[in-house]
Amino acid sequence: MSSRLINWFKFSSPVAFYPLAGRLGAWSGWIAAILIVVGLYMSFFVAPTDYKQGEGYRIIYVHVPAAWMSMFIYVVMAGWAGMGLVFNTRLSSMMASALAPTGALFAFLSLWTGAFWGKPMWGAWWVWDARLTSALILFFLYLGFMALQASIDEPRRADRAGAILALVGVVNVPIIYYSVQWWNTLHQGATIKMGGGASMDPVMLWTMLIMTFGFWAYAIAVAMIRVQAIILERERNTTWVTELVKAGGKA
Amino acid sequence: MREFFAMGGYGLYVWGSFGVALVLMAAEPLLVIHRRRSVWRRLARIVRLQSEETK
Amino acid sequence: MLEIFFTVLRRDLLLVIRRRSDLFTTLVFFVITVSLFPLGIGPEMDTLRLIAPGVVWVAALLASMLALERLFAADFADGTLEQLLLTPQPLSLLVLGKILAHWMVTGLPLVLMAPILGLQYDLSAEALGMLMLTLLLGTPALSLIGAIGAALTLGLRGGGVLVALLVLPLFVPVLIFGAGAVEATVSGLGAEGHLSLLGAMLVLALLLGPLASAMALRVSME
């Protein structure tokens, strides 16, 4: 048990984590590529046509995974940031900063694909639907986190300020979500449900899950490479980075 | 083939969302790899300059 | 322990009374913003009555956001804030005192002014009362949440715009329930649900806001 504990703490230092991040990044990159290719094949050739929405429903296979990932990444990011704040571990804060742009990308994609779905289904590019609205606010929260970190020059302050903001955000996300939902039901009565609800064709569900796992692996891969870049930038004056660069090899 | 791309009349919307998703998800890894490589190169140059100075 | 709270409160209020121009800028901004909407939308009273709660609430939101910059800035500039951080008393209590003083100076005038602006939009007496009540519950919550953003961006370049980006998304629930309560009153539905949720949000902001702001201040002042 104790040896395991030591192993975990070993990887909480950037020195030990840097090579591991490279391997993890490469592996999850390949897994992501395979899963996404399989998922794309399934979304277009295996999954049946929806009886109500025709072929247009296929947008679900990017929209829902992107929306899920944008929420999931925000929570994970806040977790890392909070860990960095409490335990004062540099690496956790770097992980949080590495995840933010990817989370923002997924939030943007869920908005974009939501608009492209809304146009044929609801007849408008943008509908003030509860889910779209809360996705928009989530996107703003990501932008705020990144803008705050970008405007602070001192890395330590940037980490901790970002952590406080992310934690405040994570407390607020459910409140925002439910308030927007409440607002929406009051103003519109019934909203049109996306997808087939609970009684979904198992093939459709599997396709969606495969895409989600693909996006997940993608997020890990990109975050790992980004965290490597952040480690190099922040630790450039340490001897271990100098040694590593001297030892050569490509990045 | 043409029927496939038409997506039962939803072509614009389906390809509009899948296309943008794929473009962005291809661009982000490339940008991140580029960022890591440029940091690495900058550091390598600094290391080289320092070793020349000490010689 | 509460002594420090009242000391800070009294000090901040005294400072504002000595320099009264600060009192009016936020209020004037609020009045002008609300008065601009009919010019952009048109003078039809039916439309105006419909949008009044939202317009007044959004204007109050922006006004209290703009005022946030002054919450810690003066104390930061003259070094007082550093002294405050060194006191043995709990910092969050001290911050709460500052926020309350700030709200009394920037938030309370908005509450008192709102019914007069509501008259521009032909709101009924009942709706005007509800507007005041929601603002009375909502603007303190805005100040409490906004204080976190103000503390985080202390001394940063481009702080004002950054505060907007950090704080406005967090204001959303308060806006929804505040404006929603007035709307519900206008349309004859009960506003109790909205009000109790707005109250719950104020309590939550009261509990977490000062703590988070105190933490943020320590981070920013290191």
Number of domains of chain C: 1
Number of strands of chain B: 0
One letter per element, helices H and strands E, the order of chain B comes to HH
Residue-averaged pLDDT of chain B, rounded? Answer: 85
Order of helices and strands of chain C: HHHHHHHHH
Helix percentage of chain C: over 70%
The profile of the biggest β sheet of chain C is: none
Strand count of chain C: 0
| Oligomer type | heterotrimer
- Briefly note the structural class of the backbone of chain C: mainly alpha
Largest sheet of chain B: none
- Strand percent estimate of chain B: under 5%
Name the biggest interface: A-B, 40 and 29 residues
Q: What sort of overall outline of chain C do the alpha carbons produce when their principal axes are compared? A: elongated
- What radius of gyration of chain B results from the CA coordinates? 22 Å
The fraction of residues assigned to DSSP E strands of chain C is under 5%
How far do the termini of chain C sit from each other?
25 Å
Helix content of chain B: over 70%
